[in-house]
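Hi support team,

I'm filing this because I wasn't sure whether my run with D-ribose finished correctly. The job status page said complete, but I'd like someone to confirm that the output block is well-formed before I use it downstream. Pasting the exact inputs I used:
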Amino acid sequence: MKIAIGSDHAGYDLKEIIKKHLEEKGFEVIDKGTFSKERVDYPVFGEAVAKAVASGEAEKGIVICGTGIGISISANKVKGIRAALCTNEYMARMAIRHNNAHILALGGRVLGQDLALSIVDAFFEEHFEGGRHEKRVQLIHNIEEKYCQEA
Ligand code: RB5
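And here is everything the job wrote out:
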């Protein structure tokens, strides 16, 4: 599976750790930056990862900023994308099982390394349950159709 990953400076260290972890597990990781700890703007990287997923360049994505909030909001502005900010394994599992999320958002300044990796593993272990959740995801899509223009 191809996974796009991106962060700002506050998520850079965790991005590097997650990238290595995923590559060791056999995933192909497409790094959309940032590539150093120099201060940058998180929306740029949220958009880059979301675009990679929306275009099919990657199947899933991971975005990281200090809290995970700004970069998840940014990724969710790309049409068709569902980015889920998760702070524990349960949220990561539900983000896939119930919400069929494309992108996992994490906070580099709020998560320890081991917790972050367990959240990542949970996210990629799960499968969408469909059924009643399919209708709810479709309802999210309907909101987009009503309010969002294609870029
Ligand atoms: C950067 O200082 C910080 O604001 C950013 O990483 C993120 O936490 C925003 O939501």
